[in-house]
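Example with several molecule types.
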Amino acid sequence: MNNNKLLIMNGPGLSDLSNFNEMGYGHLTLDIVRKKCSETCKIFGLKMDFRQTDDETELSRFLIEGIEDFDALIINPVGHSHTSSVDFTIYSSAIKTITRQNKPVIEVHISNIFQQGVENTKPIHVPKCEVGFVSGLGIHSYDLAIRAVNKKLSKN
Amino acid sequence: MNIYVINGPNINLLGTREPEIYGKETLKSISKKCIQQGLKDGHDVKFMQSNYEGEIVEWIQNAITEKVDAIVINAAAYTHTSIAIHDALKSYSGFKIELHISNPHLRETFRHISYISSAVDAIVAGLGADGYSHVIELLADLQKHYKQKK
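Resulting structure tokens for the full complex:
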């Protein structure tokens, strides 16, 4: 038990996961994902804050200011149905700042974003930073990311 | 479950090759951890590495005939060049995960294109050598989810 604090941030469009159900990832709601994350965090003694917002300004502000209180970040940047409206550069500078503080960051996606074509969803681009990437494991994308964060924190 | 963990070119140099990117852990050590993690969960893990594209294609074809349950593939540099590996993976209907030690999307632009990603179920990258054991650890759950998907 380590009392490390993990922020799990879900970006625009992710309040409604029904499109993933149609893609065959099982019946998913954000609340089901939150509960699963909470169970996994409990196993490792991680404190979790699970958030979702459709507001990009609020999102980037919280990433930059709010991260002070956290030891690691798991971020699902976007639901693919809303991608056209999201400016991915909002993530880049925030994530650069966080990785410079030596805090683990992992980008997760429920579906395999490359099967929808990268025109729709691209990985977050933060060159020369250490950011993990998990895409296409359904709800388990979060699960694997939490395990990886825990492992990384235990090495720090 | 029967699991193939397939590794591509230069992965045999792990531990000495650009350790600031790939870490200090050797392939032998990763292989041992994967097999042990598999044994713990009741999986039969075959861990392999080749510098030859054709050999990797043949291993994927073997996975089809041997009805292997899952493939974890780190195609390394062939990720960005090999349509042959893409085609082989397309023909394999079991659960397949693309794995990378580093995150190719944060490196040189020639690593941003993957011929593997669209042919697999999922991608795990940038978690270091630990990515392998994390994936093996979750494979039983992951396969259940995959069956749901089919």
